[in-house]
Amino acid sequence: LADARSERVAVARDVNAGAASIDRAQLASDLTIAIDAEELFLQYQPKVHLRRQEITSVEALVRWNHATRGLVLPSDFIPIAEESRDIVALTLWTIRRSIRDQRTLAAHGHELRIFINIAGVLLADARFVRTVCALVETSGARLGFEITETSVIRDPESAIANLKIFADIGIVIAIDDYGAGLSSLAYLKQLPARELKIDKLFVTQLTSSNRDPLIVRSTIDLAHALEMEVVAEGVETQAAMALLSVMGCDMIQGFLISRPINLDALIHFLAEEKHLAIAAEARAPFNR
Ligand code: C2E
Ligand code: MG
Ligand code: MG
Ligand code: MG
Predict the structure, then answer these.
(1) In 3D, which of 147, 122, 121 has the Cα closest to residue 59?
(2) Nearest residue by C-alpha to atom 7 in ligand 1
(3) Is the distance from CB of 200 to CB of 172 less than 8 angstroms?
(4) Of 5, 108, 172, 232, which has the highest C-beta tally within 10 A?
(5) pLDDT at 183
(6) Ligand 1 shell residues, CB under 6 Å
(7) Average of per-residue pLDDT across 137-148
(8) For position 6, what pLDDT does the model report?
(9) Ligand 1 pocket check: which of 58, 64, 78, 125 to mutate, most ligand atoms within 8 Å of Cβ?
(10) Residue 98: which of 70, 78, 118 has the closest Cα?
(11) Is the entire prediction scored with pTM above 0.90?
């Protein structure tokens, strides 16, 4: 009986694995079309600078409005795009759209740097680097690139060289998801990064954990010693924001301020200046 049962489980597992790989292949071929079919769209999530109490930048996050499946999130298609090389077209689309949206924001009186997530494979792609340089130089756009240290590890020499090229043309480099992947102090020392984003893994439970505050505080101190500004991602509560403020964290990003939102909603959000009241609260407990 036990044998029959484990056999059934094994068969079920095979069927699932098969279905998952067909699904993946289907998504991969759909994605190639999606880019031209205008099925991708961007949402923006603001970063609030705590001391300055202003929003100086936003992060662009790509979404896929699939013809039959509906909304597909990046965690489901970015890995597929990286394997198929569609990541190049996807990222160039994201950059072009961000440049266009930055002009729209400027027309509404909002001068914001737009940060774009850059997959590791692109950091070793000389043609991608040339195309980006041309786009930035002809548009004069103010961009930032978020990269993970894990993405530098594949080919550190070309990654570091290309990041220096990006930094030289005015693109601000941010280290994303710091602490969650293969964080190497050797890379931290060499990367031309101006911002360090602490992974939400250490932030979402900041006020209910014993160790997270210690890790976050020492990371902030380390980044400051290296003359980088620190962004905490995944800030969901007033209490977390207040603690981050005391620890000297420079910027916060998270659902407390805003979820990622469409361009129209971002323009409304910026006009309402709601973040000012929220950011003012960061200091309130200590002013009282
Ligand atoms: P990421 O760059 O670390 O982005 C942060 C993720 O955390 C986003 O998920 C965002 O929606 C989510 N988030 C923001 N605030 C909070 C919060 O307060 N609490 C919680 N629990 N989550 C929060 P999203 O949009 O699903 O993106 C996932 C990942 O996909 C991104 O992680 C990024 O690595 C990747 N990604 C998104 N857009 C692109 C893109 O255009 N190109 C590439 N290569 N990767 C992208
Ligand atoms: Mg990011
Ligand atoms: Mg991140
Ligand atoms: Mg993350």
Answers:
(1) 147
(2) 234
(3) no
(4) 232
(5) 74
(6) 45, 61-62, 73-75, 78, 91, 94, 117, 119, 146, 176-177, 200, 204, 233-236, 254-255, 260
(7) 97
(8) 52
(9) 78
(10) 118
(11) yes
The enclosing H or E element of 178 equals: strand 172-178
Q: 54-66 and 143-147 as β-strands: parallel, antiparallel, unpaired?
A: unpaired
pLDDT category at 198 given cuts 50, 70, 90 is very high
Distance 146 CA to ligand 2 centre (A): 5
How far is it, in rounded angstroms, from Cα 195 to Cα 203?
17
> pLDDT at residue 204 above 60?
yes
β-sheet bridge partners, residue 172 = 144
Find the farthest-apart pair of alpha carbons in the chain and give their distance in angstroms, rounded: 72
Dig out the tokens for 4 from the structure: 């029959």
Of residues 73, 45, 52, the one with CA closest to residue 235: 45
3-state SS class at 172? strand
Residue type, 91: T
ipTM of the complex: 0.97
**Mean of per-residue pLDDT scores for the chain:** 91
DSSP conformation class of 237:
S
pLDDT tens-digit map of 94-122: 999 999 999 999 999 999 999 999 999 99
Out of 19-28, 172-181, 240-249, 252-261, which region has the weakest mean confidence (pLDDT)?
19-28
Distance of CA 59 to the CA centre of its chain: 6
Per-residue buried b or exposed e for 185-220, using 16+ beta carbons within 10 Å of the residue's own CB:
eebbeebebbbbbbbbebbbbbbeeeebbeebbebb
**Beta strands 143-147 and 172-178, pairing class:** parallel
Q: Is 58 within 8 Å of 114 (Cβ atoms)?
A: yes
Pick the closest to residue 27 from 87, 85, 89, 72 (CA basis): 72
* Cα dihedral 170, 176, 179, 180 in deg (nearest 10): -160
